[in-house]
Amino acid sequence: MVQSGKVGTSVPSELDSSHQKMLDKLNGLNGAEFTKQYDKDQGSMHRAWTNIKATITGKSEHAVLAECERGEDAAKAAYEAALQKSLPADVRALVERQHEGVKANHDRVRNLRNAAA
Fold first, then answer.
1. CA–CA distance, 27 with 15 (Å, rounded to integer)
2. How many beta carbons lie within 10 A of that of residue 69, not counting itself?
């Protein structure tokens, strides 16, 4: 849309102050602290994107649920990638339980989306 000239704005060349603060905070973290903050920020950004998309699409229930499902797809993929790694048995058991929960959430959102179609 931006390239076609249909949107009356330009693509930003730098981060706004709130996103720069996020990046600066992440740059100061390591290991588990980084991962925890990154995941939190990703969730916040996905919720913001869902709100933007809902506004653009007229808050269509189907469109909002489709975006939620896309977020659940990303979570499923992250857990599936983690389960491909060599993990200690107790960690693997925890990740497997969480993965089952993510899959169940995905299926609930998918079913809601299908019902809204």
1. 15
2. 20
